[in-house]
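At this stage, I put together one protein's amino acid sequence and its backbone structure tokens, which the following lines show:
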Amino acid sequence: MHAIMIIAHNQFELLEKLILALDDERNDIFVHIDAKVSDFDFEYFKTLTKFSEVFFTDERVNVTWGDFSQVKTEITLLKTAYAHNDKTNPYTYYHLISGVDLPIKSNDYIHSFFEDNDGKEFVHYTDNTVSESSLSRLKYYHFFRKKRNSFTKILSQSIYRIEKIIRVDRLKNNGLLVQKGCNWFSITGDFAEHIVKNIDKYENSFKYSYCGDEVFIQTLLESSKYKYNLYMPNCNNDHTACMRLIDWERGNPYVWRKENYDEIMASPCIFARKFDINTDSEIIDMVLDSIK
């Protein structure tokens, strides 16, 4: 069994297609809907699938870019999925994707791939050696991430400078080895259990971080025995390490279009990010038709 964890805040027509594409008796689907969304039809989405069960997190986080709320959402999904874990048939993998991602392989292929690579952690590192700027995301306090205006920007920058002068170091003595990479991952059930059971020790270290979602899973992995199980050690910014097709060269990230169909389908990756119905709905249907 696999736990598919989805973070969504818009594009709910695409989210519906995504859930239907993942509808398989070997998948349970867990969804977090941003607390800012007021008109989401939870009951309708619960009835979509024939084979998978769809669960929504009881806690809904008001997500702000660059803020701890992004990490909190990941923690919430991991805890929710782990709580539904059947000990007689546990989840072998936990996958984190967004509501504007799509699988680009069939469910049979996905499960076969992870069976062949059982025990491997699919986590991406931007660099083989962590940079000082990545360390600073956790080393210092980054205030006012939820309240960004001219005044709070100046204030937070001033505090940051003072912290550097007086040598604040939040990493000192907390046992965390920082790494940075893509926040989307596919991790083993064992590593997911390790995170859930130990998150109370580490959660405060990610509060007041800057873009902590890009160091969260990497840091917990690097600080555990599971770091020896990386699918692609020394990946050096290759997103195949987490089996995600993401293009940061043509966009932020690039939105896939129908002219990219051959490129998408030739990728060895499992999921692709990102799609947009308003930009190009054809490519969405083309991909989904190909993986049935």
